[in-house]
Design goal:
There is one protein chain. It contains 18 helices and 14 strands. It is of the alpha/beta class and about 425 residues long. It has two domains: about 1-215, Beta Polymerase, domain 2 (2-Layer Sandwich); about 220-430, Rossmann fold, CATH 3.40.50. It has a five-stranded mixed β-sheet. A five-stranded parallel β-sheet has the order 11-12-10-13-14, with helices on both faces. It has a two-stranded antiparallel sheet with strand order 6-7. α1 runs antiparallel to α2 and α10 crosses α18. It is elongated.
């Protein structure tokens, strides 16, 4: 892993740092999905651009950039002919939760160890960093770390550290405390030993929290295409690639579904006696008039707006990836499916003005003969109409036409290249400020 080796070679020569966990095998082999590095704040601030330059020199793109009071994250990716490589670096300048300091970073770094290739924390601080953070959030310590916990239960050094930082004599005493009691005890200890540092930490947390509300750190991708264009296969392959690094990938179908299906709603208010639930034939419905189409458009638009702010936006704030298998773009391109028979140019401008936009709108297309060989849901005329509307959309900003006539892996790599380049461009503007 050339990038990981280059990063650690630079850190060894220039920074006071230590890997927090999963350091066995580094820098040659990466065990977890990310690398957690504790580093002095001044060191990181002074060397941040050098680290970014190493990432760029190794031909990686920064697809997620996140900065808070306690950490800075770079999710980096490189695409070659056969592989998509994604690596996440988390640089921690302090160990805390919501501004409440748990451990002094300098204290941890003073006891760091060198294994011949990288610096890492001692086992006591490896345990306490994760355990105190989860304790503060009232979350259980993971099962996969239980072996380390059993060792720490017998550690006299750990007991000495606990006595020094919060006045407890053992891990058993800490375990008996509730989450709220632990936070109170840690806060009182900090205010007694380092009141200004603790108050500044709360201020830094609040400031970074408000800043991150202005810019979501996740990203959203929407897919549109005729039945038989290979959307499901491509989406599944993209999710399989991204989930190795991103813990949360949320898949929606067509809309956020804050509101029920329009037919169900009409049935509940007695406007329809029956509901057509034959979803295996999405193009079964007949053509609707202008008024009916407009009512459908307004109903779905309410769902898109409400659902975006209630269900989608919160996920993006959490650095998640949101994927729509069809979105409002599908209403523009495939009127028969949504039964909204309005001019596609009008629908585009309506969506531009009123519908929350996704970061990347992928228009997945294939030749008509390829589509008919895969699925006979549409006739030739229907396929051609959808492809023509997608060509119109492909000329608009934020829309990307991708052909999927052959191996879906080729389409996947093309789509990921589009997304990663777009993310990299956005993130570099923020990084270089």
């Amino acid at each position: 892993m050339p990038l990981v080796k280059e990063i650690f070679s630079y850190l060894n020569a220039n920074c006071n740092y230590a890997v927090l966990r999963n350091y066995a095998g580094l820098p040659d082999n990466l065990v977890g999905r990310d690398i957690d590095i504790l580093i002095e704040k001044n060191d990181f601030d002074n060397n941040r651009r050098h680290i970014v330059n190493i990432i760029l020199k190794e031909n990686y793109r920064i697809i997620t950039y996140f900065k808070s009071d306690r950490m800075t994250t770079f999710v980096c990716s490189a695409i070659n002919k056969c592989n998509v490589d994604i690596i996440q670096f988390d640089f921690f300048c302090q160990t805390s939760a919501y501004g409440l300091i748990h451990l002094d970073a300098n204290q941890i770094l003073k006891t760091r160890a060198f294994n011949g290739k990288i610096y890492h924390v001692t086992r006591e601080f490896e345990f306490l960093d994760k355990y105190l953070y989860l304790k503060s959030l009232n979350q259980p310590y993971p099962e996969k770390y239980q072996a380390l916990k059993k060792v720490m239960e017998q550690s006299a050094l750990l007991n000495n550290i606990l006595k020094e930082i919060i006045g407890l004599n053992s891990l058993q005493e800490l375990e008996k405390l509730s989450s709220a009691a632990f936070r109170r005890k840690a806060l009182l200890a900090n205010l007694r030993k380092r009141p200004l540092t603790q108050l500044l930490s709360f201020y830094s947390f609040l400031l970074s929290y408000l800043k991150n509300l202005l810019f979501h750190n996740g990203y959203s991708i929407g897919f549109t295409g005729a039945d038989g264009s290979g959307k499901t296969t491509v989406i599944n392959k993209i999710i399989e690639t991204l989930k190795k690094t991103y813990p949360t990938i949320e898949l929606f179908h067509f809309r956020p579904s804050m509101l029920p299906n329009l037919g169900e709603t009409a049935h509940k208010i007695k406007l329809k006696s029956e509901v057509d639930r034959n979803f295996s034939q999405p193009h079964r419905g007949g053509e609707t008039g202008k008024l009916n189409s407009l009512i459908r458009l307004l109903y779905y638009s309410i769902d898109y707006v409400l659902g975006y702010f209630v269900r989608v936006r919160p996920l993006l704030y959490k650095r998640s990836v949101v994927i729509f298998d069809r979105y409002f773009t599908d209403i523009i391109a495939d009127s028969r499916r949504s039964r909204i028979f309005l001019n596609h140019k009008f629908l585009y401008w309506f969506g531009k003005l009123f519908i929350p936009n996704l970061d990347y709108n992928i228009l997945l297309a294939a030749d008509r003969n390829v589509i008919l060989a895969r699925k006979q849901e549409l006739d030739v005329e229907g396929i051609d109409q959808i492809n023509e509307k997608m060509k119109y959309l492909s000329k608009k900003k934020g829309y990307y036409l991708v052909m999927n006539n052959g191996n879906p892996e080729e389409a996947v790599q093309k789509i990921l290249s589009i997304v990663f380049e777009g993310q990299h461009s956005k993130n570099m503007k923020r990084i270089m400020k």
